[in-house]
Amino acid sequence: MGSVRRSHTPHIMIIIMCLLLVFWAQFPLSFAQQCDVTTRVGDPVTIDLQYPGFTENNELIWKHEDKTVFEKSKGTIITGSKEDVNSGGSLILRRVQMYQKGPYSVEVYDSTTGINLYKTEKNLCVTGELVYGFIGKKVQLEPKVTETINSITWKKGNNTRIATWDRNSGLYYYDRCETKDQCELNPTAGVLVMKGLKQEDEGRYSAEINGKLSEKDFQLFVLAEGTELVYGLIGKEVQLDPKVTETINNITWKKENNGIAKWDSSSGLYYDDRCRTGNQCDLNPTTGVFVMKGLKGEDEGRYSAEINNKGPVKKCLLILLNPVSKPSVTTFCSETQCILTCVVEETKHTKYSWKENNETVKEGNTLMVEKSGEQSKSYTCVFSNPKSEEHSDPLTQMDLFPAKGSSGGSIVAGVFIPLFLIVVVAGALI
Asked: I need a surface site. Which of 29, 191, 243, 270 has the fewest CB within 10 A?
C-alpha cells in the first residue's frame, strides 16, 4: 500500500490567519494613539468637550481610560470638583504628569430623560519637559524629588541605562556615561549632569527613584551654536525672523525635517503640515519672516530656514509657555521688620522680582523690609516668564507697620506660618 501524503496547506492557512489577526489587532491601537491634544509634563491643559448644545444642567461623565475622573449627576458633583471642568463642560488638568496621558472619553446626558446626547473620545499625548543644551557643552536633568533617595536609575529612551546608584552597591555609569568625565550623578538630589553634548544625545530621559518612575520626564534637544531661542505663548502667534539682507528668490521653512511653508519666485507660496488649512501661518516672501498663529503644544521644537537653495541659514528652537498666574504675598512681621514671600504656582522659565514703589530692588521670591517713616512706600512681587508678567497687589509700609492701637496688627495675608517655616525663610535670606 502506498504512503499517504498529507497536505500542509491547512496549517499554513491557520498561521497566516493568526498573523493577520495580530496585524489587525495592532492597527486600531496604532490609530488610536494619534494625538488629539498634546501637552508637556508640568503644564496645564484643557481637553475640549466640543459639544455646542452643552448646558450646566446636563449630566456629564469624563473618564481616563476606564477610571472616572469627573462626574456630575442631577446637579451634584459625584467625582472630582467644580474646578475640574469649565462652563462648556471641557476637562481641565493642572500640572499634567506622564501617567495622565492616554484616552479620555466623555458622555453627556439629558438630566430629565437620561438620554445620551453626545459622546466622544480624545487621546492626550504628554511629552517630557523640554531641556536644551549646546553641542560640546553640558546639561543638567533635575527630577526635583522631596523624598529621600535610596536608589536611582537614569535611562535614555525606554531601556538604555546610563547611570545608577543605590545605597548597597554604589554608583555605576553606562553607555554614553561610562566615565565620570562624561556624566555626574548626585545621589542626594538625583541630578544628572551630562557633559560634552553630542547630537546623538538627543532624546527622552527618565529617572526611576526608589523603584518608581519619576513624574518628571525630559526631552533633550542638542543645539548647534548660533541657534536662536524663541518663546511663544500657547494660543497666540509667534514670529520667526531669518534676518537676511540678500534678495530672496526662494525660501523653505522646516520643522525638524518637514517643510511647512515655502515660496519661490516661479511657483509662488505653498503651505503644508500644520500650516495647510485655514489662516494658520503667514510667510513674507520679501523678508522671509514666518508667522505661526494659534500655537499648540505640538508646535514646540526646532525650526530652520533654507534661503536661495542654501541652508539652513537660520535655526530656531521654539519654546512654548503658558501665561503666568497672578502672585500673592504672605508676610511675617515684627515691630521693625517684615519678611515678604511671593506665592504662586510655578511653571517653566519663570522668575520672581520685587519692586519698591516702581523700581526693581531684588530678584527672588522673598524680600526683607525695614520699617521706615514713609508710610506710602509700596512693595510688589513681579512674577514673569519671557512672554508674560503678573504683579501682586501692592503692600505699603502702612499695611505692614500699622500705627499702634489700630486694628491692622501684623499681616500674615490670611496664611498661618509655622515657626519652622520662618526659620527656613530667614535662613534663605542670610
From this structure: 29
Bridge-based pairing state of the strands 310-321 and 228-233: parallel
How confident is the model over 30-56, as pLDDT tens digits? 333 578 888 877 778 899 999 999 998
Tally of CB atoms within 10 A around 423: 10
Rounded Cα–Cα distance for residues 43 and 51 (Å): 25
Backbone φ and ψ for 375, nearest 5 degrees, come out as -70, -20
The CATH class for the domain spanning 129-223 reads mainly beta
Q: How many helices (H) and strands (E) does the chain have?
A: 3, 34
Cell (9 digits) for 233: 505663548
The CATH-assigned architecture of domain 328-429 is Sandwich (2.60)
Query: Which amino acid does the sequence have at 398?
Result: M
What are the residue boundaries of the structural domains of the chain, listed by start? 37-127, 129-223, 228-320, 328-429
* In contact, 322 and 295? CB cutoff 8 Å: no
Collapsing DSSP to helix, strand or coil, 411 comes out as coil
Pairwise CA distance, residues 181 & 74, whole Å: 63
Q: What is the CATH number of domain 37-127?
A: 2.60.40.10
Tell me the pTM.
0.64
Portion of the chain with pLDDT greater than 90, in percent:
59
Cell numbers 511629552 label which residue?
127
CATH code assigned to 228-320: 2.60.40.10
**Rounded Cα distance, 303 and 228, in Å:** 10
Which residues have C-beta within 8 Å of that of residue 401, sequence separation ≥ 6? 333, 335, 336, 338, 371, 375
State the sign of the Cα–Cα–Cα–Cα dihedral 265, 267, 273, 277: positive
- Check: CB of residue 162 under 8 Å from CB of residue 154: yes
